[in-house]
Amino acid sequence: MGFTKLDSGIIYSSIWGESSDIRIVWVTMLAMADQNGNVMASVPGLSRAACVPVKIVEEALAKFLSPDRYSRTPDNDGKRISTIDGGWNILNHGLYRSHTYSDSADAIRMRMNRAERRRTRSEHGEHSASASVSASVSVSSSKEKEIVIPTKKEVEAYCNERGNSVDPEKFVSYYEAHGWQSNGKPVSDWKALIRYWESSERKDGDKSGGFNF
Predict the structure, then answer these.
(1) What is the predicted pLDDT for the residue at 87?
(2) What angle do CA 163, 189, 181 make, to 5 degrees?
(3) Which of 3, 25, 132, 148 is 20 to 30 Å from the Cα of 59, by its Cα?
(4) What is the mean pLDDT of residues 98-109?
(5) Could you give phi then psi for residue 186, rounded to 5 degrees?
(6) Are 89 and 82 in contact, with CB atoms under 8 Å apart?
(7) Residues 6 or more apart whose Cβ sits within 8 Å of residue 43
(8) pLDDT over 60 at 29, yes or no
C-alpha cells in the first residue's frame, strides 16, 4: 500500500477552490495512490471510497483530467490525472511524495522542526555512546595504572614455594629502581614476573640484574 504526504500546502492549490465533494474525491485519490501514483479503482469503487455519489466522482474526474491554467504546477497543462488500465495515474504524484512537496511557510517550518528533532536525537545518542566509551576507557586505564608492590618476604615466600633460585632481594631492588614498571607499564602481576625471571635463569644462568622487563 502506498502513501501520499499531505500538508497545508494543499489549501493554496486551485483545487481547494472547488466544492467540498470534489476536494474529498481528490484527497481520497491521494490516499489510495500507490508508490507510482496509480489509483486502481472503478468509478463506483472510488465513489464508495470517497463516500460521495457516482455523479460527483464523474464530475471530479472530468475536472482532474482537464487543463487548469491556475495550477501551481504547469506540467501537463495543469492536468492532475491521466487514465490507465484499471484506474488513473496522479501525474504530479512525485511532488507529493517528495520532501519538497510544499513551499508554504507552515510546511517549511514543520519540516525544519522535524529535522531539528532528528538531529537532536542523533546527537544525544552519539553523546551517550561517547560517554559510555569514555567511562570504559577510564576504568581500563585505572586498572592499567594499578601497581601491586610485594614485600621482600612475599617474594621470598613465593620463590621458596616454587623452588627456584631467583634472588628476592635482587628482584625487589630491580623493580624499585624502575618504579615498579615493566616495559613501561605498571607491574600488576609480580608473580608472573617471578616466573619469567625463573625461566630466564634456567635458560641463561644467574642474571646480573640487567634484564629489560
Answers:
(1) 96
(2) 110
(3) 3
(4) 55
(5) -60, 140
(6) yes
(7) 54, 57, 58, 61
(8) yes
Burial class (CB in 10 A: 0-12, 13-18, 19+), 200: middle
Evaluate whether residue 118 is within a structural domain.
no
In a domain, 72, yes or no: yes
Grid cell for residue 141:
586505564
Q: Decide if 142 is inside a domain.
A: no
| pLDDT score of 156 more than 50 | yes
Look at residue 82 and tell me whether its pLDDT is greater than 80. Answer: yes
In a domain, 28, yes or no: yes
How many residues can be counted in the chain? 213
- Which pLDDT band, with edges at 50, 70 and 90, does 47 fall under? very high
Residues 101 and 161 in one domain: no
pLDDT higher than threshold 70 for residue 182: yes
Helix (H, G, I), strand (E, B) or coil at 104: coil
Residue 145 has pLDDT above 70, yes or no: no
The residues, ordered by sequence, that sit 6+ positions from 170 with a Cβ below 8 Å of its Cβ are 209
Whether residues 87 and 167 fall in one domain: no
As a whole number of angstroms, the distance between CA 42 and CA 36 comes to 18
Q: Other CB atoms closer than 10 Å to residue 98's CB: what's the count?
A: 11
Which amino acid makes up residue 170? K
Q: What is the mean pLDDT of the chain?
A: 80
